[in-house]
Amino acid sequence: MADGAPVTRFDPYAARAQFPILSRTVNGKPLVYLDSAASAQKPRAVIDALTAAMEGSYANVHRGLHTLANETTEAFEQARETVARFLNAESPDQIVWTKGGTEAFNLVAAGLSQSLKPGDEIITTQMEHHANIVPWAMLRDRFGVVLKWAPVLDDGALDMAALADLIGPKTRLVAVTQMSNVLGTVNDVKAVADLAHAAGALVLVDGCQGAVHCAPDVQALNCDFYVFTGHKLYGPTGIGGMYGKRAALEALPPYQGGGEMIATVTQDAVTYADIPHRFEAGTPPILEAIGLGAALEWFMSFDRQAIAAHEMAVYDHAVARLSGLNWLRIVGTAPGKGAILTFTVEGAHAHDVAQVMDRYGVAVRAGLHCAEPLSRRFGLTSSARASFALYNTVEDADAFADALIKAREFFV
Fold first, then answer.
1. Cα–Cα distance, 403 to 191 (Å, whole number)
2. How confident is the model over 40-56, as pLDDT tens digits?
3. From CA 223, how far away is CA 217, in angstroms rounded?
4. 370 is a catalytic site residue
5. How far apart are CA 303 and CA 12, in angstroms?
């Protein structure tokens, strides 16, 4: 922080109090929710916004001339403006609604498939979520596209030198996560974009974790596409979307056909709406978009740097509590990583560890975390993951450490 800069503060206890579910108990213990990388809990502001929209003013959006339609359309498009402000997009019409991050990846893949040729290359990394792998693998299998993989180093960092060597004249797209959902690694996606653009390739950034923890600025990142999902941003499920540079969006053909995405329809011809509506066929996730808008307004009321510092302080406290345990392996220790703690316990399967920890009210995730190539890279058949959010506290970290140690004792 520069000299003279204001000191920012974040009160996790005040923020936590705004989440009704966090006051409940599980198995007679206070709930310690450490699964926010999978899906975050919802604050009262989101719950109230959804209730108000359903109780007070709901109708289908666009084209309606009655009061409820106009009110709902205004709230729906205001949410798009909120997302644009959250990501620092140039314009709200560069925000495309989807049902989540996965659909956004598939939207881009479907659009690119109409211009890619056999031998064209797509580059991704070993640390990607399946949503940023499978659509490109489908292009490989159906159209003869070559899929290349940038490796991950032993500490969980992306091998940038190897990535640079992979990018060449046949590269059409580089698809990379801003923050790994398993390792917590935060990638320098601006540097990736610079490498890709120098070769004439597009860059797609998976921001499903990064949007929560990295305060993204899509103009500064200079990415062509940025994918996000609402339910990890303290908003509802069933809503997410994508930012795209105007030229990149306008080059994509429509993803699905139906109402809303058209300009005119005759028996002989169809013309399409302008972006973003040409990608939003059918009745959109209206209530979910309004709820996401409320979530982002609530989230932006806090200082993002202060939140990140708090999350890492909780993470560091948990790691310190577990230091010196020779039966514990932590996966992902890259410098500058985010507050995700993935681990294995010697002599115990991750699923069993998670179930025992649940007895103490501690919710962690176990499995492959939708990242099988990464698990194979580290020789894992399963791992457990504790992911920390703004509402977690050092008391949560202590409860996590205590439950993990008790779980280990259960298996020896």
1. 40
2. 999 999 999 999 999 99
3. 10
4. yes
5. 12
Taking a C-beta distance cutoff of 8 angstroms, is the pair 336, 214 a contact?
A: no
**Distance between CA atoms of 224 and 208, rounded to whole angstroms?**
16
Which two three-digit tokens encode residue 189? 């996606």
pLDDT on residue 9? 84
Q: Yes or no: say if 225 and 243 are a contact pair by the CB < 8 Å rule.
A: yes
pLDDT tens readout for residues 342-353 = 999 999 999 999
Please provide the distance, in angstroms rounded to a whole number, between the alpha carbons at the two ends of the chain: 47
Six-digit token string for 125: 């990394």
Helix (H, G, I), strand (E, B) or coil at 401: helix
Look up residue 337 and give its DSSP letter: -
Cα separation, 35 vs 394, in Å, equals: 16
Q: Name which of 34, 6, 8, 37 is nearest 22 in CA terms.
A: 34
Could you say which residues of the chain have pLDDT below 50?
A: 1-7
Q: Which amino acid is at 174?
A: V
